[in-house]
Design a protein that fits this description.
The chain is built from nine helices and no strands. It is mainly α. It has one domain. The termini are far apart.
């Protein structure tokens, strides 16, 4: 499923530019020194990837716990359904149940810390900005978290989120270098493609949970047979 994380990141980065673009545009990069600028941008991306990996590690552990309890396949189906429902439900209906609301205080602190970091130009500034950026609420990150849970393994969950972050790097880097370069028409078309891909991912998660015996898509559940040994 790692390929889906990469494609999800690539497509979703158009949304990222819209949501996190202002942060990227405001990065205090040294535009007079190309080498230093590349290093600063790399530090920013590394910070984002690090926070995504930590998030994936946590939710991968959640998925592992579900796997141990033997309900991981059912959870995969539920996750697939939730991904599809989140796309098909009208935004106004979904916003009534915004899961970020209980975290508004924490998000406020993250934004405040981001504002302070953007005013500095110390060695760790860009890593800090990227790290904090990774924890800001984002619908696409929430969808990627579903994938981390379905990974049913802490390492795989972390890797899933890391690969998702890698997919966002090309366009986010272009945004830093070129600013608001995106053609509005192209941006709208790509944004329309993102929900379609999320629905396709949701269907894949459902198929995976059903265990239909389809190689790589819906592998059959492994059945462990035990032989009774009679001792005389």
């Amino acid at each position: 499923m790692l390929w889906s994380a990469l494609i999800f990141g690539l497509l979703g980065s158009f949304h990222c530019v819209g949501m996190c673009g202002p942060i990227a545009f405001m990065l205090p990069v040294d535009r007079s020194n190309s080498f230093k600028k590349v290093f600063q941008i790399f530090s920013y991306h590394f910070g984002r990837l690090f926070s995504y990996s930590l998030i994936g590690l946590f939710f991968g552990l959640v998925g592992k716990g579900l796997y141990i309890f033997g309900i991981q396949q059912k959870i995969s189906i539920v996750i697939g359904v939730l991904m599809i429902v989140a796309i098909l439900l009208p935004y106004k209906t979904f916003s009534k149940y915004n899961f970020s609301k209980p975290l508004y205080k924490l998000i406020g602190k993250v934004k405040s810390a981001l504002g302070s970091a953007l005013k500095k130009k110390t060695a760790d500034t860009f890593f800090t900005i990227g790290f904090l950026n990774g924890f800001l609420p984002c619908g696409l990150v929430y969808m990627a978290i579903f994938g981390a849970i379905a990974a049913s393994n802490a390492l795989q969950g972390s890797l899933y989120m890391f690969v998702f972050g890698l997919g966002t790097i090309p366009l986010m880097t272009s945004a830093i270098y070129l600013g608001k370069f995106l053609n509005a028409t192209i941006k709208r078309r790509i944004q329309k493609a993102v929900p379609v891909f999320v629905i396709i991912m949701g269907i894949l998660f459902i198929l995976r949970g059903l265990g239909l015996g389809i190689p790589y898509i819906s592998p059959a559940p492994v059945t462990v047979l035990t032989n009774a040994i009679d001792c005389h």
